[in-house]
Specification:
single chain; alpha+beta; Chemotaxis protein chec; about 30% helix; globular
Length: about 130
C-alpha cells in the first residue's frame, strides 16, 4: 500500500472530514489510526500497519532519547477512528488544534501513511519548501 496524492477537503460538521476515496481504498477495513504528525499536521495509518510500527518502536531502548520523544508524541495523541458509510471520520477533539485556521483541510499521501493538514499551514509549508 502506498498513499499518494493531494486532496483538498471541507469539514462537513464539527471536526468531520470526508477521507478521499483513493486514500480509503488503501485502508483495510473502516478503522484507522490518527495521531500528531512531526510537522504541523496529523498522521493517519492503516490499523494493521500502525500496530506493526508500534511494536517496532516499543522494541527500542528506553535510553534512546529520540525514540522516547517519538513514543510520547505518537502514542499520547493516537486514536482509533472509524469511517462512516459516507467516507467521513471525526477528528478527535485533542487533535483538532492542528486544524484550526479554516473550514478546509488538505490530505496528502506520504507513502506509508497519509497526513491531514490545515489548508493554510500546508500552503505555508510548501512555500517554505520552495514548491510555490
Amino acid at each position: 500500500m502506498v498513499f499518494f496524492g493531494e486532496y483538498s477537503v471541507s469539514f462537513t460538521g464539527q471536526g468531520r472530514i470526508v477521507l478521499p476515496k483513493k486514500i480509503r481504498e488503501l485502508l483495510k477495513g473502516n478503522t484507522f489510526v490518527i495521531t500528531t504528525g512531526f510537522d504541523s499536521c496529523l498522521a493517519g495509518f492503516d490499523r494493521d500497519d500502525w500496530e506493526t510500527r508500534a511494536k517496532e518502536l516499543l522494541s527500542v531502548s528506553l535510553l534512546d532519547k529520540e525514540n522516547i520523544y517519538k513514543r510520547r508524541q505518537l502514542f499520547s495523541s493516537a486514536a482509533y477512528v472509524d469511517i462512516d458509510e459516507q467516507g467521513r471520520f471525526v477528528v478527535p477533539k485533542n487533535l483538532m488544534k492542528m486544524l484550526t485556521a479554516g473550514s478546509r483541510a488538505v490530505i496528502i499521501g506520504v507513502g506509508d501513511h497519509f497526513e491531514v493538514w490545515d489548508e493554510e499551514k500546508w500552503s505555508e509549508y510548501k512555500s517554505r519548501a520552495g514548491e510555490e
